[in-house]
């Protein structure tokens, strides 16, 4: 999955007795997902709370082009930037 798409994907958090699925306005798990995990035997919790899950700013190297790619978590504060080395 491309870095930007991964950062825009909903998050899951392990709990002692199951899993918690992230609910965010534009991107979230849904009731079908919850039912799927429940059928697998997980106790599922779904909450709409800002900043409850890990926030990530990612950097990766495209090994085909040699280009560095940086992305900031769209659901949190901050930006992704790079130094101008020229």
What's the arrangement of secondary structure elements?
Elements: H1 3-7, E1 12-15, E2 18-22, H2 31-39, E3 44-47, E4 58-62, E5 67-71
Parallel strand pairs: 2-3
Antiparallel strand pairs: 1-2, 4-5
Brief digest:
The protein is α+β, with helices and mostly antiparallel strands. The protein is built from two helices and five strands, in the order αββαβββ.
- Helical percentage: 10-25%
Secondary-structure element series = HEEHEEE
Which structural class should the secondary elements be placed in? alpha+beta
- The residue-averaged pLDDT reads 80
How many domains comprise the coordinates?
1
Number of DSSP-assigned strands: 5
How much strand?
25-35%
Radius of gyration from the alpha-carbon trace, in angstroms: 16 Å
Q: What count of helical segments does DSSP give?
A: 2
**Major beta sheet, specifics?**
3 strands, mixed
State the strand order across the main sheet. 1-2-3
Task: Write structural notes for this entry.
This protein is α+β, with helices and mostly antiparallel strands and 86 residues long. It has one domain (3-71). Helices cover 16% and strands 27% of the residues. The protein has 2 helices and 5 strands. The strands form 2 sheets. It has a 3-stranded mixed sheet, with helices on one face. The longest helix is centred in the middle third of the chain and has 9 residues, at 31-39. The model has no long low-confidence stretch (mean pLDDT 80).
């Amino acid at each position: 999955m491309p870095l930007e798409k991964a950062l825009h994907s909903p998050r899951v958090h392990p709990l002692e007795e199951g899993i918690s699925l992230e609910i965010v306005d534009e991107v979230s798990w849904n009731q079908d997902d919850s039912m799927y995990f429940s059928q697998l035997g997980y106790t599922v919790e779904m909450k709409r709370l800002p900043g409850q899950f890990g926030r990530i700013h990612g950097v990766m190297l495209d090994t085909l082009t040699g280009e560095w790619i940086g992305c900031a978590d769209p659901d949190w504060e901050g930006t992704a930037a790079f130094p101008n080395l020229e």
